[in-house]
Specification:
The complex is a heterodimer of chains A (462) and B (273). Chain A is an alpha/beta fold and 462 residues long. Chain A is built from 19 helices and 16 strands. In chain A, 37% of the residues lie in helices and 16% in strands. In chain A, helix 10 links the parallel strand 1 and strand 2. Classes of the chains: A alpha/beta (462), B alpha/beta (273).
Amino acid sequence: MKKQSPKKRIKNFDEVALGISEEEALQEAQRCLFCKNPKCSMNCPVEIDIPRFIQAIKDKKFGDAIQIIKEKNNLPGVCGRVCPQEDQCEGACILNAKGKPINIGALERFAADWERHDKSRLSAEAKRESCLAKAEDTKLKIAVIGSGPAGLTCAGDLAKKGYLVTVFEALHTAGGVLVYGIPEFRLPKQIVKEEVGYLKSLGVVIKKNFIVGKTVTLKEIFEEGYSAVFIGTGAGLPSFMNIPGENLNRVYSSNELLTRANLMKAYLFPDYDTPVNIGKKVAVIGGGNTAMDSARVSLRLSAEKVYIVYRRSEKEMPARKEEIENAKEEGVEFHMLTLPQKIIGDSEGFVKGMECIKMELGEADSSGRRRPIPIEGPEFIMDVDTVIVAIGQSPNPVFLKATPELDLDKWSKIVVAPETQATNVKGVYAGGDATKGDDTVIAAMGAGKRAAKAIDAYLKKV
Amino acid sequence: MFKILSNEQIAPGIFNMQLVAPLVARKAKAGQFVMIRIDDHGERIPLTIASNDAENITIVYQVVGVTTHRLTEKKNNDFLLDVVGPLGHETQIEKLGTVCCIGGGVGIAELYPVTRAYKSSGNKVIVIIGAKNKGLVIFKEELKEICDEMFITTDDGSEGEKGFVSDVMKRLIDSGRKIDLVYTVGPAIMMKVIADLTRPFDIKTMVSLNSVLVDGTGMCGSCRVEVGGETKFVCVNGPEFDAHKVNFEELMSRQSLFKEQEKHACKIRGIVY
């Protein structure tokens, strides 16, 4: 897929990946073997009928293609861009044997983008609505807490089944991590807005500035006549390293950097009022997608040098290979097997350096990755003026603290039954990062889907 | 969209705004705050809920930059785009005996609901409020009505005593008055001075901290400050903390993080305050 050149793209927040052309899409669709037992679909967390939509593309029936995708996936423009296809559909494609799996992600994105730009979409949408086999209104109300990928997916599926769904969102805009976490250059917010718009067209109501746990309690939601609740409150609580100097000025959690830059558009300051204060030499601690996002956002702000600082080696980094590659192309430097011990400040209370030690890899730990062990030896100081801590997030505490009746595990994740996403409280389901800790958009969507199915079954019985 | 019922100047640079926000109003308790956003380009800022009835809340703000300046331009029947709350823990109110409530500057407005709560729980309440000058002493009549003793200080002596709230506090302590709790809210340096005064006498002191916030729901850590050797988030662990455990130097340092950006934004808009 064509991308903006690194030199150009680090000066803007425009989308890096440019999508594929109709010609390229047709060429790719023609390579598909249309397997009888498609491994791709079996490895899709939302069970998209992949061969069928690829066939539609091959037949130049792009409207049908997107319709087929939307039967299972309510956020195709999002998934086509941020799914780790290499671990899912593309990773399972039998053409891997020839070293060239079908570029399913690019095709999904192509179909979604085609629909966004197609002028006749509006009337076509109306046509599709009527044949969407939308179930009769059940008159039963469902509350969804959180408008991130888990909540939006659950809401969309339940709306299609005829339920009256209201989504309660704490922030002032819907999308959750899709708007505050993933940067504009990976996922344009206009796309999120349009996909949320699609859900609204299915009848989903979204109430913003509504914090369940503060504005209203779970108990009160049931008292207001909701028959079931899905919790998709996410994992927004940032983890810090708890090392000296971590509260110095210009030390940020990745959440803060990304929320300022993505949600509040600090990259357009002072046209947008929220500022962000990044220096010239930024160290990003962590090895996941959030660390990559933080590094690439920093480059596009005022940073001249950006370092990824990770305590294991590149092999153990959880970030998508594609994101690591993008970061490297943009000039991010990777300092592996390095652990910060202390952040050093100047007389004004701002970061002026970071003391680190070198690590080596020992035996595998419980995550299956080799454990990092400090090497005896001198500490060294990294010359940085900004530190971004991107070492992980845990479940948002506000709702959980206000809802003690929910069973949580020792990491504050909501305990759910794996097939149904049911919690210990009757009529209450949960999914996404609130149950898994920081995971992918698509995993959250899969959970939202399972929960919608289970809620439907539960309410039919009741 | 949250309708503005009134937006009145109550002192130079200090305004009182009443908003229709029923979901916030019905749950708001003393000590809690809201995050507001004026419009789509605006930033999210925290403001303490000074009072509330069944449908409406009142916030008091001081003009300190672009957002608060833009708030002054709002008229009756205009709207704020986003208001969310009530956020933060409510003040823990108990009957303790004698409570000393100390407010500085615009913090005096934040003192009001808390003072009222302590008084109605059966405490004897001493109020000490301080400002730069007479014109900036706000909520004087309201507080006088609900407390047992009131002291006013101004930097220039134009009202009450010349000096600082800490002078009065020191005097009360030195006189041997039994004070069971000090609750103070105002500029960070003022709260620090009070904390330093009460610490050697082991007088329990609570402060309401005013760090920089972005979401207000515990998501980003912008508001974090060291309390008792641990990092706490003002938005979800606070906003009130045991003053003797708060690292005020760190709080004040972190408050200055965006000074350059704030100055620049004001400069390009010609905002002077």
